[in-house]
UniProtKB/TrEMBL annotation:
<feature type="region of interest" description="Linker">
    <location>
        <begin position="236"/>
        <end position="256"/>
    </location>
</feature>
<dbReference type="GO" id="GO:0008360">
    <property type="term" value="P:regulation of cell shape"/>
</dbReference>
<dbReference type="GO" id="GO:0071555">
    <property type="term" value="P:cell wall organization"/>
</dbReference>
<keyword id="KW-0479">Metal-binding</keyword>
<dbReference type="InterPro" id="IPR038009">
    <property type="entry name" value="GlmU_C_LbH"/>
</dbReference>
<dbReference type="InterPro" id="IPR018357">
    <property type="entry name" value="Hexapep_transf_CS"/>
</dbReference>
<feature type="binding site">
    <location>
        <position position="356"/>
    </location>
    <ligand>
        <name>UDP-N-acetyl-alpha-D-glucosamine</name>
    </ligand>
</feature>
<keyword id="KW-0961">Cell wall biogenesis/degradation</keyword>
<comment type="subunit">
    <text>Homotrimer.</text>
</comment>
<feature type="binding site">
    <location>
        <begin position="106"/>
        <end position="108"/>
    </location>
    <ligand>
        <name>UDP-N-acetyl-alpha-D-glucosamine</name>
    </ligand>
</feature>
<feature type="binding site">
    <location>
        <position position="175"/>
    </location>
    <ligand>
        <name>UDP-N-acetyl-alpha-D-glucosamine</name>
    </ligand>
</feature>
<dbReference type="InterPro" id="IPR005882">
    <property type="entry name" value="Bifunctional_GlmU"/>
</dbReference>
<dbReference type="InterPro" id="IPR050065">
    <property type="entry name" value="GlmU-like"/>
</dbReference>
<keyword id="KW-0963">Cytoplasm</keyword>
<keyword id="KW-0573">Peptidoglycan synthesis</keyword>
<feature type="binding site">
    <location>
        <position position="78"/>
    </location>
    <ligand>
        <name>UDP-N-acetyl-alpha-D-glucosamine</name>
    </ligand>
</feature>
<feature type="active site" description="Proton acceptor">
    <location>
        <position position="368"/>
    </location>
</feature>
């Protein structure tokens, strides 16, 4: 049997009042994706002919977000939120060509998995039902619609919390709000919805009753993991769902051979990857498009955003953003890598060092207390402690070139634009604003002079003067011996 056409309708017009947020609820983020982004990612493997998102509250923001992240999804505006049934009709009216299976989802169930949706669609299509409801048995069903079954255990109807009798309230099998429908039968049923319920809304759940009344069958499919059905209504639930997703992501990574010292404080976005035999120490965030290579060691206490880390590299107590760290390179402790910081294989960026838009060549070291901005450093160079690349003249940024095997003495300022050629030295404490040729020592600092007897004349009686006196006496004694 060939798979029928599938269409996804995602309801996201509600206000999400309890989030108490200027941001529309479905745009809140969990591990690298918006809530709605997670649902759309779970739906994508169904290969829907169309994906229609019903927007209302915050429609402009949600539409802009979808255009950026999921260009394949279309949106339709539900001006007034008259109920889940009404919202579904608004979407289906905008999809006159939809046939086969229509999957209805919400935008706030981020833990929904593709495998669960596949199971729902297969149960629906194999059963030849007019509708199939995704259900779950939960400990606390408060607020959710309850599944009412007949004496034979077959689906009878859904009763909302607000419309339920005490006996019905005691039922723990709930309506997830996700369904697979036969498109044609859904179109018919949506025309028959009424608003004679306690909320005066058009309930999508009534469509199921109308289908049964018309002699069709309605199936149920139990979600393999209750988490798949969990919606997000407030910030506490947002944090809880984030924790559940963290567990899923971390379990999957550990099963593929990643070591985590403390999974509870390890937060890896669903968009990031971590290689085999990598070790993640406590308090680490791996965000965005970050890719961590095999055997790398990350943390403790590090945040990596859109960063590529090579095999066997180590990143300790660092914050990195849009950087590339070569194989076996070392970063930190206490380092800041900014966009387009590129560390070649075996490079070292050490303690209290910031690197921006710069290349640090293979095996080169910037070990302590430096700023490297808009610079290209060759291979095997040593940038002494406290070296600052002055890349900004107050108006424009300029580049600095540092060649292979260059040795820059401590506390130097390299004033861009400037070039320190291959195989040269810069004397410690230099302020270099002229190019240094190969093989040369660039010295750019005041020459030292010692003013003899200054302490005795200018600071008589101080402990320093006394120490000078003792030193002079000692020298005199040595001479007389
Ligand atoms: C709905 C179900 C309930 C189920 C629960 C699961 C109905 C009548 N009840 O209840 O059985 O247990 O979901 O969470 O369907 N929305 C719109 N436009 C509207 C109304 C809602 O887009 O006019 C969207 C909301 O943004 C939300 C979703 O539909 O994402 C569910 O709406 P909500 O009002 O939360 O439904 P519940 O009362 O929770
Ligand atoms: Ca809800």
């Amino acid at each position: 049997m060939t798979q029928p056409q599938r269409t996804v309708i995602l309801l996201a017009a509600g206000e999400g009042k309890r989030m108490k947020s200027a941001l529309p609820k479905v745009l809140h983020e969990i591990l690298g994706r918006s809530l709605v982004g997670h649902v759309l990612a779970a739906a994508a493997p169904l290969e829907p002919a169309e994906t229609m998102v019903v927007v209302g509250h915050g429609a402009d923001q949600v539409t802009a977000h979808l255009a950026e992240t999921t260009p394949g999804a279309r949106t339709v505006l539900q001006e007034q939120q008259l109920g889940t049934g009404h919202a579904t009709r608004v979407a289906l009216d905008a999809l006159p060509e939809a046939t086969g299976t229509v999957v209805v989802l919400y935008g706030d169930t981020p833990l929904l998995q593709a495998s669960t949706l596949r199971g729902l669609c297969e149960a629906h299509e194999d059963g030849g039902h007019a509708a199939t409801v995704l259900t779950a048995s939960v400990d606390d069903p408060t607020g959710l619609g309850r599944i009412i079954r007949d004496a034979d255990g077959a689906f009878a109807r859904i009763v909302e919390q607000k419309d339920a009798t005490p006996a019905q309230l005691a039922l723990t099998e709930i309506n997830s709000g996700m369904y697979a429908f036969d498109a044609a039968r859904l179109r018919v049923a949506l025309k028959g919805l009424t608003t004679d319920n306690s909320q005066g809304e058009e309930y999508l759940t009534q469509a199921l009753t109308l289908m049964l009344d018309a002699g069709h069958t309605v199936g149920t499919h139990t979600a393999p993991d209750i988490a798949d059905t969990l919606g997000c209504n407030d910030r506490e639930q947002l944090a809880w769902l984030r924790g559940l997703m963290q567990k899923r992501v971390n379990s999957a990574l550990m099963r593929t051979g990643v070591t985590m010292d403390d999974p509870a404080t390890t937060w890896v976005d669903v968009t990031a990857t971590v290689g085999v035999d990598a070790t993640i120490r406590p308090n680490v965030q791996v965000k965005g498009a970050t890719r961590i290579g095999e055997g790398a060691e990350i943390g403790p206490d590090s945040t990596l955003v859109d960063t590529v880390v090579g095999a066997g590299a180590s990143v300790v107590r660092a914050h990195t953003l849009g950087a590339t760290v070569g194989a076996k390179a070392t970063v930190g402790p206490f380092a800041y890598l900014r966009p387009d910081a590129e560390l070649a294989d075996g490079a070292k960026v050490g303690t209290f060092v910031e690197v921006k838009n710069s290349t640090v060549g293979a095996g080169s070291k910037v070990p302590h207390l430096s700023y490297v901005g808009d610079a290209t450093i060759g291979a095997g160079a040593n940038i002494g402690a406290g070296t600052i690349v002055a890349n900004y003249d107050g108006v424009a940024k300029h580049r600095t070139q540092v060649g292979d095997a260059v040795f820059v003495g401590s506390d130097s300022v390299l004033i861009a634009p400037v070039s320190i050629a291959d195989g040269s030295y810069v004397a410690a404490g230099s302020a270099v604003d002229q190019n240094v040729p190969s093989g040369a020592l660039g010295v750019a600092r005041g020459r030292q002079r010692n003013i003899e007897g200054w302490v005795e004349r200018k600071r008589p009686g101080t402990k320093t003067a006394k120490a000078a006196e003792r030193a002079a006496d000692g020298a005199a004694e040595q001479r007389s011996e």
